[in-house]
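User:
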Amino acid sequence: MAGVAEASFDGAIPGVGESLVTGYSQRRRALYMASAAALGVVIAGFWNFRVVDGFGSDIVARYAIGGYQGKAGQFASLGAGFGFVFAMVAGLAATFTACNCVAFAMIPGLTCARDARAGRSAALQSLAIMLFFVMLVGAVYGTFVGWLGPDGVEAINARAVRFAQAGVVFSVLGLAMLVWGAIEFGLLDGLTSRCSPVTRAFFAQATTRAALMGLMIGAFAIGRPYPVFREFLLFTAHAQRPSYGAAVMALQGLAQVLVMVVAFLVILAVFGQRLRRWVLSKPAQPALVSACALTAGGAYFLFYWGLARMWPFLGQWGFRLGWYS
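Assistant: Predicted structure:
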């Protein structure tokens, strides 16, 4: 991830002693990755979607705009300006849902800048790059929604379509995150060693990794089946203007990570110096945390949106055990 975990590309971090690969044996790294993946599966298995989805729709949307139902049909009376408010609400409402919560797995990689001497400025630069690409993906998708119009969005809002879309998008993202995690753990050196030195150097840069994180988080909106978000899409489509769709969807992308960004900034403000010393003195440890977070997030996505969707008997453990009503 964007951070100190560079060992799987270069074997060590310039100017720093041990890396994740040199700091831990291959067996321990494989065990840590398996444990992180297992944790992601457990969280997905016990995920209570009714609570988190209800928080977004019954609390965030309800108290911010009086509920989301039927807002698309009120486009003419509410006006295009309301779409920017709706964009913020739709993004915030989706913060803790199953199609967005993995964004928080990106925090460890952002808070630990690759070049520890750059400290806070490098971390903030990575954050800015990530946000740019989140909004860029949102703008591109919003352009598509604006061109599609309300009839087209109605079609992709159908339950069967949106859940099939979510299954594909989030499963692919989950697999990508797991592969990325394996590279961070140095478990795919046989693959990465075949890449040219220029390619390895490019992907080892904190800016490149921040951009990849932004592209991934931005893609959350493409697969999102959340009702509040789908109503927002339909509202946006009523304008039938690609430029409008791009603008409001970019804002929605920013809103969906707003809580994560605030958490990141708080961590950086309170623990910035400690993080810098940690990265300098024990670089393998923050690299391990970053790789574990990425792996857990990928396993969560793949299990929740892929395996448990194809074979429903695998998921919803809390409901099956009678823990959730």
